[in-house]
Specification:
Layout (H helix, E strand, L loop, with lengths): L7 H60 L1 H32 L20 H7 E2 L2 E2 L1 H21 L5 H10 L5 E3 L4 E3 L1 H6 L4 H35 L4 E7 L12 E7 L8 E4 L2 E3 L1 E2 L2 E2 L9 E13 L2 E13 L6 E5 L4 E4 L3 E7 L7 E4 L3 E3 L5 E4 L6 E9 L5 E12 L4 E4 L5 E4 L1 H5 L3 E4 L9 E10 L5 E4 L5 H7 L7 E11 L13 E5 L1
Parallel strand pairs: 14-20, 22-27
Antiparallel strand pairs: 1-2, 3-4, 5-6, 7-8, 7-11, 9-10, 11-12, 13-15, 15-18, 16-19, 17-18, 19-20, 21-23, 24-25, 24-26, 26-27
């Protein structure tokens, strides 16, 4: 068109042609911008649907965690943390979109003015400082880069390795080869430098979609792992079913081995054992009934389930054998597994299968109470006592057993005033007539304690040594000099057991009386 000398008419035609080409280019650009805008709207709509699906999946997981905390509790906790960081990341991206679209309000249909968003300077200035990343750009890049690592840190082994690799690839920010540049350039420059604003908005929306998809994949993967585990043979256990529950010496042990599966999510509608209803639990039902006479007895009943509107009954059929108790000693302390010096320790001693009148128990300090099988133990010196038990069988043969018990002293008591411990508050007149006592805190035996002496001390006054459990005249004289807020310390409390002679208890903790 530029060759040779052109007539004015030809020049006009050429000019119109150039204008026509420019208009075509302009129209094409507007179509491309509109296409990005429409795509952005589609992704936004899809993100909303994904949010709804994710919320529904999480509610299912939360319900399972409530029903079966052992199996799903840890997964729910991990998903909650992943959802939290996913929302924070998505909200951060949304804040960028809001900031760069302030000048482009949406119309009544919720659409941006796509054709006006053809410049990329807003994003360029936000993410780049000449050829380098700006502070905001580095922040944005770092959040994308670290997101998969945070997911992996929270999810751990709950996220399959193949699924984790998909997530890492989805947020890969490695340099990318640019045909235009003929070399690899940074991920940020390749994706966010020099693009029309609407194109960048669409990319940011797609990044939000990737976040939501990751959240969905994590939850789906956790459910899938449970389904795979349920279908796996590792969910089954070999169960030994004996021909009978008890065998005698010399008998052949007979039975069968079956594969059984315990499903903790399955609860029966009802369970009947030997004609009685028992409570159905997750995957099982516990029962209890009297053993009956010696011999073989049946166990029968049914597990009943609702399935497709019908009751399905699974029969229970087994048996058990009752035999005489084995001849072994049973020795127990009624209060605890030790005996205490200074108190009467009640003991129950028996020999399984032997009547109480044929059982004899001996030990230092041990004496029968007059009731069959009942003894009292008053341990003496030392740290241990051995109880020897013998029993006479019907054939007059003797069986024997023994057990060693530790001997412990009674723990130190705590001082009291008016029966109160610690810091007791009240008027001087109340203290003058109060009794100094002692208590054994958290001790299993009922014992009586007598206070036979104590020290009475007021700051700035000499200590008064008292014999007995009440204030003497010297104490009252000192007490007359104290004022409101002063404290009286009663210490060195000497305590002994009632009826235990000269047996003194360990040091008694002091008690303080604050004058009101």
């Amino acid at each position: 068109m530029a060759a040779g000398k052109l007539s004015p008419r030809q020049k006009m035609i050429n000019l119109m042609y150039l204008v026509f080409i420019a208009m075509l280019a302009l129209n094409m650009s507007k179509e491309v911008l509109s296409a990005f805008g429409i795509l952005n709207n589609k992704i936004v709509e899809s993100n909303s649907l994904t949010d709804s699906r994710n919320e529904s999946s999480f509610l299912q997981l939360a319900q399972k965690a409530t029903d079966q905390p052992g199996q799903y509790g840890d997964k729910k906790e991990k998903v909650e943390k992943i959802r939290k960081i996913s929302k924070e990341f998505s909200d951060y991206i949304e804040s960028i979109k809001v900031e760069v679209t302030k000048k482009y309000p949406k119309d009544a249909s919720g659409n941006y003015p796509f054709e006006e968003m053809d410049k990329g300077d807003l994003i360029d200035r936000m993410f780049f400082d000449q050829e380098k990343l700006s502070k905001k750009g580095k922040e944005f890049f770092t959040k994308i880069q670290e997101f998969p690592a945070e997911i992996k840190k929270i999810g751990g082994s709950s996220i399959a390795e193949i699924e984790m690799k998909k997530i890492e690839k989805r947020f890969d920010v490695s340099p990318i080869y640019s045909p235009k540049a003929g070399a690899k350039i940074s991920w940020m420059e390749y994706n966010y430098h020099g693009f029309p604003l609407i194109a960048t908005i669409t990319k940011l929306t797609q990044l939000q979609a990737d976040i939501k998809t990751t959240e969905s994949d994590v939850m789906t993967g956790m459910f899938q792992s449970d389904l795979v585990a349920a279908a796996s043979l590792t969910a089954y256990q070999p169960i030994v079913v004996l021909e009978k529950s008890v065998f005698f010496q010399g008998e052949a042990v007979k039975g069968k081995i079956i594969l059984g599966k315990f499903d903790p999510s399955l609860t029966a509608k009802s369970v009947v054992v030997n004609g009685s209803s028992v409570q159905a639990q997750a995957g099982q039902a516990n029962f209890s009934f009297g053993s009956g006479n010696i011999g073989e007895h049946p166990i029968s009943g049914s597990f009943n389930f609702d399935e497709n509107g019908k009751v399905i009954s699974l029969p229970i059929k087994d048996k058990y054998v009752v035999v005489a108790r084995p001849k072994s000693a049973t020795i127990s302390a009624d209060k605890m597994n030790v005996v205490y010096r200074g108190v009467v320790n009640p003991m129950t001693i028996s020999f399984a299968g032997i009547s109480a009148d044929k059982v004899k128990a001996t030990a230092p300090g041990l004496a029968p109470t007059g009731t069959p099988g009942q003894y009292s133990m008053r341990p003496g010196a030392g740290t241990e006592v051995v109880i020897n038990v013998t029993g006479t069988l019907p054939d007059n043969s003797i069986v024997s057993d023994k057990k060693t018990y530790r001997i412990k002293g009674i723990p130190g008591p705590t001082g009291t005033i008016r029966g109160e411990m610690g810091v007791v508050k009240g008027p001087k007149s109340s203290l003058e007539i109060s009794t100094v006592g002692a208590k054994l805190v958290d001790f299993d035996f009922e014992v009586g304690l007598d206070v036979v002496g104590f020290n009475f001390k007021v700051t700035g006054q000499p200590t008064v040594v008292v014999v007995g459990n009440k204030l003497n005249p010297q104490c009252k004289s000192v007490l007359s000099k104290v004022g409101r807020g002063d404290q009286v310390t009663i210490s060195e409390i000497k305590t002994k057991l009632v009826g235990a002679g000269s047996y003194l208890l360990p040091r008694t903790a002091p008690v303080i009386y604050e004058i009101q």
